Amino acid sequence: MKAHALLAMGLLLWAPCALAVDSTPPLPDPVLQQRYLALTHELRCMQCQNEALADSPVGLASDLRRDVRELLQAGQSDDQIRDHMVARYGEFILLRPRMNWRNAWLWSAPALFMLIGLIIAVRVLRDRRRRVDIDESDADVEPFER
Amino acid sequence: MNRYLLPLAAFALLLIVLIVGLKHAPEKGVIVSPLLGKSAPPFTLPDLLDAQNPLRSDALRGHWSLVNVWGTWCEECRTEHATLLQIKQQGRVPIIGIDWKDDDARARSWLADMGNPYDHVGADREGRVAIDWGVYGAPESFLVNPAGTVIYKHVGALSPQIWAQEFLPHLL
Question: What distance in Å separates the CA atoms of residue B166 and residue B10, rounded to the nearest whole number?
Fold first, then answer.
């Protein structure tokens, strides 16, 4: 019973986050609206932190959506708008981090691991082939060894 | 022996990377402000208590200031208020308030009831100035030097300890 009540309370706490939150009318220009949707999905809500601006019901998110709309209508490019946000809130506001010297090693990690895997695979295969070769050359001499 | 050496070395390396990463990780939930070391963003706001005398960012020039972002909807700000009054009493720095997305009347009665620690309070009704300052949750406090450069930022309620340990050393 108690558990049920707790669960219900927990779910209620989440309820505001589940609603469709951006109730502003779409921008008249469909291209701008498309860019607006893309940008608000790749910028972080700094209050709900793991949500995008587009999905967050808090006041700060709607203020930041307003700013994105205004900057778009002022003719700014997507990169200019991202820079505008980063200048205020830091790289953390970008849900898709940019590559820079500090995180370059992280970006290169998949390629690096792929390379390591390939080297290991080649060595294992070569090793196995050599063993098979030896087995075959030995076969005539000592057929009952194994 | 040899066949375990390489994986072991790789594992040790991974451990070192993870430990270094954890040691250097910023405090959980606190975002380092890109504003630190940069000029305070310029702004003009209507003064909450004196309509004739708008609050301009020029007010931050020529002396150290504490810029405090607050709102009557913010419970932590109520906790913090006593500390702000103490800082005011010490008289080391003027406190500039930014009343963030608030109801003016409610904000005035908050200051009338609990005391006013601010030299100026700007009413940021649309929340634009707060965004320029990179504010993401009240209360937030900034220490600005006489040249108008942001030196330090604290997210969350101030306490006498935080003031003494994190702010005062900059003023010496």
Answer: 41
CA dihedral B81, B84, B88, B93 (to 10 degrees): -150
- Closest-approach residue (CA) in chain B for A60: B136
**Are A44 and A52 in contact, with CB atoms under 8 Å apart?**
yes
Distance from CA of A84 to the nearest CA of B (A): 9
Q: Please check whether residue B43 lies inside any domain of the structure.
A: yes
What CATH number is attached to the domain comprising B48? 3.40.30.10
Amino acid letter at B63? H
Q: Is residue B155 part of a domain?
A: yes
Residue from B89, B129, B123, B88 nearest B103 by CA: B123
In a domain, B68, yes or no: yes
| Residue-by-residue pLDDT tens, chain B, 172 positions | 678 898 899 999 999 999 998 888 766 666 788 999 999 999 999 999 998 999 999 999 999 999 999 999 999 999 999 999 999 999 999 999 999 999 999 999 999 999 999 999 999 999 999 999 999 999 999 999 999 999 999 999 999 999 999 999 999 8
Domain total in chain B: 1
Q: Does residue B5 form part of some domain?
A: no
Instruction: Say yes or no for a CB contact (<8 Å) between A92 and B134.
Output: no
Token representation of residue B55: 């609050």
The answer to whether B31 contacts A63, with C-beta atoms less than 8 Å apart, is no
Domain that holds residue B132: 31-171
**Could you say which DSSP state residue B163 is in?**
I
How many angstroms separate the CA atoms of A65 and A53, rounded? Answer: 7
Give the span between the Cα atoms of A115 and B74, in whole angstroms.
Answer: 53
CB contact under 8 A, A88 and B126: no
What is the spatial distance between Cα B31 and Cα B70, in angstroms, rounded to a whole number?
18
Asked whether the beta carbons of A45 and A55 are under 8 A apart, the reply is yes
Q: Interface pTM (ipTM) of the complex?
A: 0.83
Name the amino acid, one letter, at B77: C
Question: Tokens 């900059």 correspond to what residue?
Answer: B170
